[in-house]
Amino acid sequence: MFCSKCGTENPEGAKFCSKCGAGLGAAVKPTEGAAKPEAESSTGMTANVAGLLCYVAGWITGIIFVVLEKKSKFVKFHAWQSIITFGALTVVQIILSILGAIAVSLFSFGLWNFAHVLGIIVWVITVGLWIALILLAYQGKMWKVPLAGNWAEKQANK
Fold it and tell me: Does any domain span residue 3?
C-alpha cells in the first residue's frame, strides 16, 4: 500500500505511513474552511479546481466563472474575489502608467520615478496575491483578501 501523501510503500494493513505518519486507507477529515469533497461545481469540475481556475487569468477568468457557475458558493466566492482584487489592481496599474506618461511629457522625472517605483510595488503585490490565492483555492480554503473578500462573499451568497 502506497501513502497518498508522500508515496512511500507501506506493508498491507498498516494504518499509518512509516515515513510521514499520514493515515492510510482512512478518509482524512477536511480542515475547517476547506471545500467539502462532495461540493461539485456546475461546470463538472471539483470545487477546488474550479476555484483555482478563477484566478488563472486574473479578473478575466473570474468573470467567466461568475457567468458559468450556478451551484457552488465556493467557486462563486473565488470568482468574485478574483474580479474585485485583480480588477482593482489592474486599474491601479493603469493609473500609475498614465501618471508616469504624463510625468515624462512634463519632464518631471521625480514624479516618473515615484510612479515607476509604486508600479513595481503594486506588481509584486499582484503576483504574490495571485500565487497565494491559486494555492489556497486549490487547498479548498476561502481566505479573504482584505476589503474584497467580504464583498465577494456577499455576492457569492446571492
Answer: yes
Residue type at position 71: K
Q: 107 versus 84: which is more confidently predicted?
A: 84
Specify the number of domains making up the chain.
2
Distance CA 48, CA 74 (A): 8
The predicted-structure confidence for 100-132, as pLDDT tens digits, reads as follows: 888 878 877 777 788 888 999 999 999 999 999
| 9: containing domain | 1-30
Please give the full DSSP string across 87-131, using - where no structure is assigned: HHHHHHHHHHHHHHHHHHHTT-HHHHHHHHHHHHHHHHHHHHHHH
Q: Is 44 left (phi over 0), alpha (psi -120 to 50) or beta?
A: left
**Same-domain pairing of 18 and 61:** no
In a domain, 37, yes or no: no
pLDDT digits (tens, 9 = 90+) for 22-35: 788 654 444 444 44
Q: How many CB atoms sit inside 10 A of residue 94's CB? A: 10
